[in-house]
Design a protein that fits this description.
By secondary structure, this protein is α/β, with parallel strands linked by helices. The chain contains eleven helices and eight strands. It has one domain: Alpha/Beta hydrolase fold, catalytic domain (Rossmann fold, 3-Layer(aba) Sandwich).
Length: 270
């Protein structure tokens, strides 16, 4: 798959990721603490009709690492600058999973003219509870001392459906390896940023672009009921439940996810 590497002077950011295909732009934004490789099952298939752009967010993969706190707003602004640097002028379909969904809310809020439609995968609209935010801050401190192995151990079982553990252990191992190879400073900065992200439930009724809300049937982090409620509040949203999948639905069941995305884009002329 064609890789890209780009240095953006506006954000002082070196970007890395995949840029494949031609046509309307589909921007794929990964979750925490992962990188663009989680979208491998989407890039090749969807690039036959779209320009599929899958970058590594700030602090992840081989993109620039910033210590301290990286907010969802900053990641959203980074992506807007990336689109400008690539001279992508037309509005894009923004597809984000989990943390990528948190970034999607802020991208729509801050850069609405750049959004043609939204795809929200296994994510949340509510802010963290005080307890959850404290846990994220504790994770940030610990990863700087102990490295990411404890985080990989803690997250893997929560990310995947039981069937994925049985049928696709290689996908789980690849995800574990990605976490282990992620820079601790990048993990810590994003964890702090997620801990202070705003509640966006009040934004949902104002989303005036078509939206697709996807959720793995066995997602224990962003549950089907919670995501169905998100879809019910967004005026032009459709909800699709993905079978044989947990929180990592695009990686666990790429064919079903791709079918849902393709149907959504075709129906909306995207």
């Amino acid at each position: 798959m064609p890789r890209f590497q780009l240095t953006d002077r506006v954000t002082n950011m070196q970007w890395n990721g995949m840029d494949q295909g031609s046509g309307p732009t589909l921007l794929l934004v990964h979750g925490f603490p992962l990188d663009h490789t989680m979208w491998a099952g989407q890039i090749d298939e969807l690039a036959d009709t779209h320009r599929v752009l899958a970058p590594d967010l700030r602090g992840f993969g081989t993109s620039t690492v910033t210590s301290g706190t990286v907010t969802m707003e900053r990641m959203a602004d980074d992506l807007a600058c990336l689109l400008d640097a690539l001279e992508i002028r037309d509005p894009v379909t923004f597809c984000g999973l989990s943390m990528g969904g948190y970034v999607a809310w802020q991208f729509f809020r801050r850069h609405p003219a750049k959004v043609a439609r939204l795809i929200l995968c296994d994510t949340r609209a509510q802010a963290d509870t005080d307890q959850a935010a404290a846990a994220r801050r504790e994770t940030a401190e610990r990863v700087l001392v102990d490295g990411p192995e404890f985080l990989a151990d803690a997250m893997i079982d929560k990310l995947f459906a039981p069937s994925t553990h049985l049928d696709h252990p290689e996908r789980i191992q690849a995800t574990r390896n990605t976490i282990l190879n992620t820079n601790p400073d990048g993990i810590a900065a994003a964890a702090r940023g997620m801990a202070q992200r705003p509640d966006v439930t009040g934004l949902l009724p104002d989303i005036d672009v078509p939206a697709l809300v996807l959720c793995g049937r066995h997602d224990a982090i962003s549950t089907v009921d919670e995501m169905r409620q998100i879809a019910a509040v967004i005026p032009a949203a459709r909800f699709v439940e993905i079978s044989a999948a947990g929180h990592m639905a695009p990686l666990e069941n790429p064919h079903e996810v791709n079918r849902a995305i393709r149907s959504f884009l075709d129906a909306d002329g995207g």
